[in-house]
Design a protein that fits this description.
Helix content: 40-55%
Order of helices and strands: EHHHEHEHHHEHHH
Structural class: alpha+beta
Strand order of the largest sheet: 1-2-4-3
Number of strands: 4
Largest sheet: 4 strands, antiparallel
Strand content: 5-15%
Shape: globular
Number of helices: 10
Oligomer: single chain
Radius of gyration: 22 Å
Distance between the termini: 31 Å
Length: 238
C-alpha cells in the first residue's frame, strides 16, 4: 500500500530556549546555575537568543534536543538522513520484523506520468513482495534467519519508521541542507515538516531556520535553483 511521509515532534528539552540561554550566561557569570535559572525564567530571552545566533555562539544550542517520529518514509530516505552523523537514530529492523506486506513510497515524478505508470509501479512492488516471500520460505519460512537475506530483494521504496534525535545546532545545519530546493524531494518534505514543528516550540532558536538563501547568497553557485525570492516568500507565509 502506498504511504506518505510524516515527521512528528514527540519529545524535546523542556523550555529549550531557557536551556540555551542558561548555557550561554553560565559561561560569563559567577552566579550559580540555580540563580541564573531564576533570572532567566523571569525574563524575555528573545533578544539574547537571537544575539547568540548572530554571534555564532552555537555550542550553547547543543543543550536543547528534539526527537521526531518519522513514519511512512522510504529506505532511500534512511540512507540520506543517516549521513547526518551528529544525531541518534532508531530504525525498524528488516531482520527482526518481517516485511511480509510492506508499504511503499511512490515518487511524485512517477505519479505525474499518470494512472498507467502508477499501476505499473504498484505491480512491480507486488512482484518484489512475491520474491521476498519466496526467499523467506526457501530460507526457513520465518524469523530473523529468513528475513535477513530475503530482504535483499526489497526496494528502496519500501517503507520504514524511525526515531531521530538532533540538538538545535545540528538541526539548523540539517535545515540549511535539506530544506534547500536542491535536496531530494522526500527528505526536503520531511525537513520542512521538522522545521515547522520545532519553530512552534522554540521560535527564537529556529528563526530563519532553512536553506542558506534565506539570510545570505545561495552557496550552490551555478547549481542554484534561482528561487531564493520564492523561498523567502514561503517562509513569511509559514
Amino acid at each position: 500500500m502506498q504511504v506518505t511521509s510524516k515527521a512528528e515532534l514527540i519529545r524535546y528539552t523542556p523550555n529549550p530556549e531557557e536551556a540555551v540561554a542558561l548555557a550561554a550566561k553560565l559561561c560569563y557569570s559567577s552566579e550559580s546555575p540555580s540563580e541564573l535559572m531564576e533570572k532567566i525564567a523571569a525574563s524575555d530571552t528573545t533578544k539574547f537568543i537571537r544575539m547568540l545566533k548572530k554571534m555564532g555562539h552555537l555550542s550553547t544550542f547543543e543543550h536543547a534536543s528534539f526527537t521526531f517520529a518519522l513514519t511512512g518514509v522510504s529506505r532511500a530516505l534512511l540512507a540520506q538522513i543517516t549521513r547526518h552523523r551528529i544525531a541518534s537514530f532508531s530504525v525498524r529492523s528488516q531482520r527482526y520484523v518481517s516485511e511480509g506486506d510492506f508499504n511503499y513510497v511512490i515518487p511524485p515524478s512517477i505519479k505525474v506520468l499518470g494512472t498507467d505508470a502508477i499501476v505499473k509501479f504498484e505491480g512491480q512492488m507486488r512482484q518484489m513482495l512475491a520474491w521476498y516471500g519466496e526467499w523467506q520460505q526457501a530460507l526457513g519460512g520465518k524469523g530473523e534467519s529468513a528475513n535477513e537475506d530475503a530482504r535483499f530483494v526489497l526496494p528502496n521504496a519500501c517503507e520504514t519508521n524511525m526515531l531521530v534525535t538532533m540538538n538545535a545546532r545540528e538541526l539548523l545545519h540539517f535545515f540549511e541542507l535539506r530544506c534547500c530546493n536542491r535536496a531530494q524531494w522526500e527528505i526536503r518534505g520531511v525537513a520542512w515538516q521538522m522545521q515547522r514543528a520545532v519553530k512552534k516550540v522554540a521560535p527564537n532558536l529556529f528563526a530563519d531556520a532553512g536553506p542558506k538563501c534565506l539570510v545570505a547568497a545561495c552557496p550552490e553557485g551555478v547549481k542554484s535553483c534561482g528561487k531564493a525570492k520564492e523561498v523567502k516568500s514561503r517562509m513569511k507565509n509559514e
